[in-house]
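Record type: monomer structure entry
Structure origin: computed from sequence
Chain ID: A
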Amino acid sequence: MIIPKPVLYIGLLALTVAAPFLFPAYMTQLATLWLMIIVAMTWDMTGGQMGYNSLGNIFFYGTGMYVAAVITIGMVYDVREYTDAAGGGIFAFTEGQYFTGLVLGSIGAGLFCALCALAVGWLTFGLRGPYFAIGTLGVAIAAGELVSNWEWIGAGQGISMPNYPGEFDEFKLLIYFVFAGVGVLLFIFLNWLYTTRFRSAINAIRDDEDKAEAMGLRTLRYKLVSWSMAAFFVGVAGGVSAFQLIHFEPLETAYQTINLGIFMVVCVLLGGKGTLWGPIIGAVMFHVIKEVTWNYFLGWQWVALGAIIIVTVVYFQDGLLGWLRLKKPEWFGIRVTKKDEVVTGPAE
């Protein structure tokens, strides 16, 4: 039995709203789950839909954290004085200043990261395949090193964000709904975007970029627009994460290339590249497995996650959705009438 899309969407939205009240002890983990969903969906915009596998999307996440912090602090205090470790001053923020910083800082982070994507894209989109992946990874690593030596924004000691002006449980609930709101908006946007000609264009780049250029498609324009849209949402997520973490530093938290930078790629591979639901399903599966291994197999968690990556790459190269499409084609609108004859319907 196939669940109608309106019923499915209403049910998932109701579950999203009820989740922090049904599982209050796991509110932080639920917020992190939404972060994983956001970064997975944005990575798939270029890696799955367009065929440009980036290892540097964490650059936008870390940059978003710092931009949000600078905007929030700069509206009230001098940033250098605030981040000076020897200052010893007391810097208080009112409730209005906190929420203004949260809104403007997160949006500003997204816009700044979108501009960064345009600038970095001009340099890196001349590369293809593994060279593009390595090039973007180099950008992320370089950014982390530069920020860790920039005294104006705290250098290696990082930045402490203002404290939430209320109860800690209220703070966790706020962060959850902000992440969930960004994730829902991103899903709605992609659900619309993937029904337009834009998806056909970036899919053409993925399938054969040279042929797409020969047919008159301005591939660089589509690549830059796609990456900048992805960077906007990653930057917003990074800005919200800055408030969630309260204190963060460049290498281990902001530009964490070997953690979140790799996790977002694994989520998409696990769920299925080039699909709307694949990154979401993969993010949920990966986050649950990660939390279980971190809690019950401490010391072996990296071995377990490495095994998951190997099994996925070797045996499920099309991800869970690709495997299900082969085993249960009727779930995807594909009707098999008789041997070697397939009647196809809608893909999603």
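Annotation 1: The longest helix spans residues 95-124.
Annotation 2: The beta strands are 159-160, 247-248, 335-338, 341-343.
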